[in-house]
Amino acid sequence: MSLSWLTGPIFEKELRVSSRRRRNYVLRFAYLALLTGFLALFWLQAVQIGGGNLNQVSRMAEAGKGITSFVIWFQFIATQIIALIMLSNSISDEVYNRTLGLLMTTPINSFQIVIGKLLSKLLQIILILGISLPLLAIIRVFGGVPWIYVVSSLCVTLTAVIFVGSLSLFFSVFSRRAYVVIIVVILTLFVVFGLLPWLSGFLYFFVTGNWPGPRLTAAIFFPNPYGVMTYSTAMMISPMGAGGMAARLWPVHCGIMLAASSAILFLSVCVVRKVALRQATGQTAVRSSKKARTLSESPSKVAPPRRVAGPVVMWKELRTPVLGRRKIRMIIAIGIGLILLGITYALGWFENVLDEKSVHMAYVIIFTAIGMLFTTILPATCITSEKESQAWPLLLATTLSDWQILFGKFAGVVRRCMPIWCLLFGHIIVFSLVGYIHPVAIVHFGILVAWIVVFLSGTGLYFSTRFKHTTTAVIANFALAGVIWALVPIVMLMIVGITQGDIDLVSGLMDTHPFFQAGVAVIGATGSSGIYYWPGMESSDVAESTIWMLACMVGYMLIGWLFMWRAKYRLRRNIF
Amino acid sequence: MIKTQNLSKNYGDLTAVGNLNLTIEQGDIFGFIGPNGAGKTTTMRILVTLLEPTHGTAFINGLDVRKHGKKVRRLVGYMPDFMGVYDDLKVFEYLEFFAAAFSIERRKRKGIVEGVLELTDLQSKQSATVDSLSRGMQQRLGLARVLIHDPKVLILDEPASGLDPRARIEIRELLRELKRMGKTIMISSHILSELEEICDHIGIIEHGRMVFSGTLADIRPHLGIQSKVRVKVTANQDKAVELLSALPPIREVEVVDDYISVTFHEGKEGDGLIARSLVEAKFDLVSLQPEQLKLDDAFLQLTKGMVH
Predict the structure, then answer these.
(1) Which residue of A235, A342, B117, B140 pairs with A241 in a disulfide if CB–CB is 3.0 to 4.6 A?
(2) Tell me: the pLDDT tens digits for A65-101?
(3) Cβ–Cβ contact A305 with B under 8 A
(4) Given CA atoms A457, A459, A464, A469 in this order, what sign does their dihedral have?
(5) Interchain CB distance below 8 Å, B50 and A390
(6) Chain B residue with minimal CA distance to A408?
């Protein structure tokens, strides 16, 4: 039976278009390369220790478990990222190219559009998942890995991918920019699967005076794919496990995830229809028409134009509203975020844990991560977005020098990142005033944030000049940060494990890691010890730590400037 | 004012512009015509320093566009075929932004912006956001932006595309006004009848190569087409044909509808002789007018309609 009633011609069209996009091949290649590379390292690590045949055979089962759980987790995370990226512009492209309204003039309906888009991308992800199946089957020969673990993990992965893909597709209706969709989805997942379960546990404790029992904990984490995967893997690895509980849990979890995805897709269908009809009838900008009506009714409401002052590109960048165009929505979202954050502080206060090092480290790491997220994205967008709107040649046709343009863009990035970093500095300053954190942390975090901003702005501006599309530039900047601060340390750790080499090299590398620097700086500044524990060094005092952080800052800033210099060199290339 | 010498631009194996030689004198309006993909936009982008030529050179006011990019940009106002806009700026801010980008002093900017707004009839829209403007208004804003730094040379890529007839006429008048102000204008358009009315010179480009450059009057000899006149008399059309056929400079006479089409021998003209002969032979001469070669016809004859 043909499935064309479900997707219409959208499915085939999407597959055809996808096959022509280089980005999809790069994603698949990167997936395979990473999977193969990590597997090779994992394998070498598992078999390099000597011993007799019997010992080898017994360890094969352990190696099999390790490799299986690694492959399962790798594809669990990687396929979600791929789904997120692939669907992040699925509807927005149709809106931006004005083809959505065109589709509405054909017998294709919004249901077929949404399902066609989703299924076409899912098919590619299922193919990727399929690549690792023979490998998992071979590893099972080693023993120790129950079938139920493999099957349940694949199902959990698939439903998680469908859920993330549906979310990405849903948000792509509202934003033209794929990176905005990516951020919103990440934040939504963080809130739904991270913050809310954690807060509900705390609230339960706050109300009843007891922590949730095993059943309630299971209920809280039941719909959470990350929780289910963690639980399932732990059950497989533990000798008591073999998937007993997971075998009962995962079908229900998958059912919940599918139901949630269906609800999101239903909403998407409704919203897509609304947007498509609006486009088909020529009402491309409801906001504009409302605004125009308001203005025509009361011309006195029109704010006078602002005069250009100071460096021109910087003026233009600063003119861009920090909260974007949807101010009210942004204020509501920020308000909700701050309320949730306030609740965490309130709970911490009731629990009397706000003077604990680990609590401050958690806050600081989260705030640094959020700051880095935005600092990675914003510089990568500032030139490509002008290329996409075709305003870039106009700017280049003026007498502004390349450095004037570049510094203007850099200043704009710094200004737009500042509110995000205020979270981190707000935390440090408030707890310095309270006396829980030593004020020297303000200096340390000043150094840390300075180099993060310069480094990521330099690389982001470079990628922004290098690529035509914002999404590509943003992904490239993320990939660079991921390679430097995640991939390289992990690979080095594995190589050190295989070669029994010197761990100091890895420790030294970790000393330059922004999260490690943030963690060490806040732990050193919390309490009265004043000792900073750097992984690659002996414990050091404030002065030594400051010197080390300054040295790192100089190094990273130099690299950042180098990228910016390359960006200047490429500024007038790939204009069109 | 504008000169190119063997200008070429290759994209891999594809030659977008090949050995293009072009000269535009100061104060001229030069119509740049060609099929889609012929190389017009590429040539214009090279002239405004947005693209580097693969070979050859281009000069604006004697300045090599490769070596003196900044000076050239000061001399040139460029309007691309698709004008990008900054969503968050208002019309006045948009224009002042570009005035500042061309290093115009702050105290002078307000007056200049108001001047170009008036010239392009956009005063009433100065507080509107740029993206809320209609296509026609955005084209006007594009022209206003081009004029903001008072450039000597205007390079306009399809400035009238997507405009309604009234807006086209207004832009045509504006271009005439700019010519009177002494600007050199290079303009590309697919609406050949419009170019015919305002251009002093035209260049026809195909496959990146100039197939014709000169005035409209130059096209006829270039194509080997003889001069023609249309003669209309009140009566005795057949006798008038007989009379005209006997005149020495005339090669061919034929009746088309209610007028007589007279073709001269190559290089010969004789409007006066025809009039005199007809009047002396007591014909009632109603009209005598040279038959114009339409730019559309010339374009069709000169180009093969092939694109890259």
Answers:
(1) A235
(2) 788 888 888 889 989 988 998 888 888 888 877 788 7
(3) yes
(4) negative
(5) no
(6) B101
